[in-house]
Amino acid sequence: MRSIPPARRRVLLAAAGLCLSAVLGAAHAAEPLKAVASFSILGDIVREVGGSDISLATLVGPDGDAHEYEPTPGDAKKLSAASVLFVNGLDFETWMSRLAKSSGFSGLTVVASKGVTPRKFAAHAGGHGHDDGDHDHDHDHDDDHDHDHDHGHHHGDADPHAWQNLANGVIYARNVAEGLAAADPARAQAYRQRAQAYIARLQALDASVRATFSAIPADRRKVVTSHDAFGYFGDAYGVAFIPAMGVSTDAEPSAGEVARIIEQVKRERVPAVFVENISSPRLVQQIARETGAKVGGTLYSDALSKPGQPGATYLEMFEWNVRQLAAALQP
């Protein structure tokens, strides 16, 4: 067999080495970006934008209550391995800074609600209102500070449930896309393209929701819900929500507070009361019994449903809630 000259052999070996490096580099680049989302609704938005380019872990899963969540050692392990963390912000995950510190997380933190105009909680029964204007929380904070409010059950002035307005969902999707692009520049274009397609679906649904409620007489658009999670929804789509338990899902209103709600429901002829997938139905059922208001279906407020049930994605959750509300409020 004809021998290869030494110079030619060196060239071939160098070329082979470059090819191997390129293959290994491509394999490395193709590895999914490791991401963590704080709760299920945000996790679904991240999944839509990230697609197959990410490997996502969601801490508070379907039907989970982020208000009362206690992180686990498994959560710390997931976070320590991640390159990017997505949080809602607006003091929603008051337990997150403790978890990030204990996990040694050193990646990028993305606040999905950055740019949202925050609403303040209105004063209401249960003593959970914060309408005193003494505290003006910055909605762009990144959860680096932790207030330790009674295991995360209290959220200050700002209402954290901004995803309940689909226009804010658009802001979330854009922030997620930019966060993924910053953490993974090689695939930035793919993230942004997915976000634009997803945003178009959010905007189409938003227009449909507005049309649905505008067709219902204004004096019928009143409902009682378990806790104060639908303020952004009410502001955006013209529905008045009366929260039975304030913002805290573990709150127990006094007998006097319950009596005031019952009187309000009777006085304003509120047509329907709803339970949520993260709350006990007992109080809402009592209000329905004593007022004659119709018990509507389950609403999804802070968490998606389990797969295979209505509300398993952010879009499905919104469509389900709208159908339940509209059916109960029709004259």
UniProtKB/TrEMBL annotation:
- Region Disordered, as annotated, extends over 121-161
CDD domains per the UniProt record, alphabetical: PsaA
Keyword tRNA processing assigned: no
So which domain of life are we looking at? Bacteria
- Which compartments does it reside in? Cell envelope
Show which residues constitute the signal peptide. 1-29
A GO biological process held by the record:
metal ion transport
Name the SUPFAM superfamilies on file.
Helical backbone' metal receptor (SSF53807)
On whether RNA-binding is a keyword of this UniProt record, the answer is no
Q: Identify the keywords attached in UniProt to this record, alphabetized.
A: Lipoprotein, Metal-binding, Signal, Transport
In terms of InterPro entries, this protein maps to:
AdhesinB (IPR006129), Bact_metal-bind_prot9 (IPR050492), Lipoprotein_PsaA-like (IPR006128), TAT_signal (IPR006311), ZnuA-like (IPR006127)
Give me the stretches of Basic and acidic residues compositional bias.
128-160
GO MF annotation list: metal ion binding
A Pfam family cross-referenced in the UniProt record is ZnuA
Instruction: Give a Gene Ontology cellular component term annotated to this protein.
Output: cell envelope
Family statement drawn from the similarity comment of this UniProt entry: Belongs to the bacterial solute-binding protein 9 family.
**Name under which the protein is recorded:** Manganese ABC transporter substrate-binding lipoprotein
What is the species of this protein? Answer: Achromobacter veterisilvae
Please state the gene responsible for encoding this protein: fimA
